[in-house]
Design brief:
single chain, 22 helices, about 45% helix, 6 strands, about 5% strand, two-stranded antiparallel sheet
């Protein structure tokens, strides 16, 4: 995903012609936007920051979504291995956390690219070439609006209200803006997604080479998801003005639309969602695309000190086994015993999500590399331990890749997630019967019988098992304020007691009113002339 935009200049005003003449050899940004390939390149570049997992440190979103939650421990070689993630795991995070700084900046890089695309592609005239039709222009702008909404959604659920530039920032003075409110950010997300939904194409209308681009279904899925978030107790308390009833009603309507489209269905085999062969398949609504190649985003070359220096994902090497005989990874993102115990007997999802190394395998390499982290040696099986299809099926098999930069896409929105969010919206509207229908669809694929009744507890259990180790859990826990109605602090305190004594010794107390959110990076606050407010408690 590349784009070359060079020679940005500002025109000057004056009474002499020579003051307004452009220096020979200078390329204006407008000169780039003269063809369909140029516009498509710009939109493709808007996707790239979704791929970025490394700058000064590793900043994959699952370091928050998994590790902050009761689903995973940090893992790695020791407690000092990637201390930024250790702090997130143990409620020690400060505004100096490099992981959060890189995550914050990657998303704003994406927003900046989207703002550029929205401004300049909108100025392009239909017919600049035969491919730049009104339909193509509308679709490209819709992709930019979808991605801008996606980046803001990633930011708001980690930091709450954030500065919200909606146009190209050309100076530090223009960047000097205060934090928008939570309500303002969520409303902007909905506005962008509404534009996207109207202009995007159905998944079936894209050629194979364009699989992975935002679709009408992806926009509807996000409209469903964002409305469900807005209806939740936590975000209502943070200032969302739209009533829960209105949020759930809109969420259900968008769920109705995506289900009725017939564009998506559950894979017959749950495991197929996490294979190379299954990428962009029938259950895929939106994926971050990766490839096993060394090239990176434009301008970064192969420099590991810059964002985007690879087209591959670091998640594979980050989470796979530290055993050199079966992968030589770094062993981060250890599933917890608490998560393992959540699965019912016969649930096929457990062994797809969690790998428990056999005693024989562990003892064979214990001297080479210690797989155990704070008494836990379980591994993320979805994104780390995958193999060629012929070698799958449990246990250890031959690795399908040997480099640090893996090709496996990150499934951001699966149809199963859509069905469970839809069921949640139905529950919010008091329609337990419809909710049960869709919960049971997900359970059936997992090899389980129908649930006794659709309740909040049933729904939350299914989301945890279905989406285990996919980076959703923390954000679900925050919006639900825990899962037993006693608050997130009580939930996290109870979870702590399920961990090993060794793990408990590293955990500080969860502070209600503070730890639901993460601090705005201090470096970014210092760069902002308005000296934006910090989140409470930091």
């Amino acid at each position: 995903m590349y784009i070359v935009l060079c020679g940005f200049v500002l025109s000057f005003t004056g009474c002499k012609d020579y003051l307004t003449e452009i220096e020979p050899g200078t390329t204006l940004i407008e000169d780039f936007y003269t063809s369909t390939p140029a516009a498509v390149q710009n939109i493709t570049a808007c996707y790239s920051p979704l791929q970025w997992e490394y700058n000064k440190t590793y900043c994959s979103e699952w370091f928050i979504g998994d590790v902050a939650s009761d689903d995973a421990l940090k893992g790695g070689g020791s407690t000092t291995d990637m201390s930024d993630a250790y702090d997130i795991e143990n409620w020690r995070t400060t505004d100096q956390n490099s992981l959060l700084l890189d995550f914050y900046r990657a998303n704003y890089q994406g927003i900046g690219r989207c703002n550029l695309a929205i401004e300049y592609i909108d100025k392009m005239e239909v017919g600049v070439d035969s491919a730049f039709t009104a339909k193509m222009k509308t679709r490209l702008l819709a992709e930019a609006h979808y991605l801008r909404a996606y980046y803001y959604f990633r930011l708001v659920r980690v930091f709450a209200g954030v500065p919200m530039p909606l146009k190209v920032v050309r100076s530090s003075e223009e960047w000097g803006m205060p934090r928008a409110s939570v309500d303002e950010v969520y409303n902007q997300i909905l506005a962008d997604l509404s534009i996207a939904q109207k202009g995007l194409w159905l998944k079936s209308q894209y050629p194979t080479d364009d699989m992975g681009r935002a679709t009408k279904g992806a926009a509807e899925a996000m409209l469903l998801k964002v409305n469900v978030y807005m209806a939740s107790p936590f975000w209502q308390k943070k200032g969302v003005q739209k009533t829960p009833a209105a949020c759930y009603a809109d969420a259900k309507a968008w769920g109705d639309s995506i289900i009725a489209s017939g564009e998506y269905s559950l894979c017959t085999s749950y495991e197929d969602n996490f294979t190379l062969a299954g990428e962009n398949g029938q259950e895929s609504v939106f994926e971050i695309q990766y490839a096993e190649v060394p090239w990176g985003d434009y301008g970064s070359g192969d420099d590991p000190t810059k964002f985007g220096y690879t087209g591959g994902s670091f998640t594979q090497i980050l989470v796979r086994s530290r055993n050199s005989e079966v992968g030589g990874g770094w062993g981060f993102d250890h599933p917890t015993q608490d998560l393992y115990n959540e699965f019912e007997a016969g649930d096929v999802r457990r062994d797809v999500a969690i790998l428990v190394p056999s005693t024989a395998i562990v003892s064979s390499y214990q001297a080479q590399s210690d797989e155990t982290y704070l008494g836990n040696n379980m591994l993320n099986n979805k994104y780390g331990m995958y193999r060629d299809p012929a070698a799958r099926g449990g246990g250890y098999g031959k690795w399908s890749l040997h480099a640090s930069r893996g090709p496996l896409n990150n499934r951001q929105i699966r149809y199963a997630d859509v069905l469970l969010l839809y069921a949640e919206a139905c529950l919010g509207l008091g329609d337990a019967g419809t909710a049960k229908t869709y919960i049971d669809q997900v359970r059936s694929r997992a090899g389980l019988g129908a649930c006794a009744a659709a309740t909040d507890a049933t729904l939350r259990h299914e989301r945890r098992c279905e989406l285990a180790m996919e980076g959703h859990r923390w954000f679900d826990l925050v919006r639900w304020e825990g899962v037993a109605g006693t608050g997130l602090k009580a939930h996290m305190d109870a979870y702590k007691l399920t961990e090993t004594t060794e793990a408990q010794s590293h955990m500080q107390a969860f502070v209600a009113g503070k730890h639901e959110l993460f601090p705005i990076p201090q470096e970014e606050r210092q760069l902002n002339p308005t000296n934006i407010d910090q989140n409470p408690g930091y």
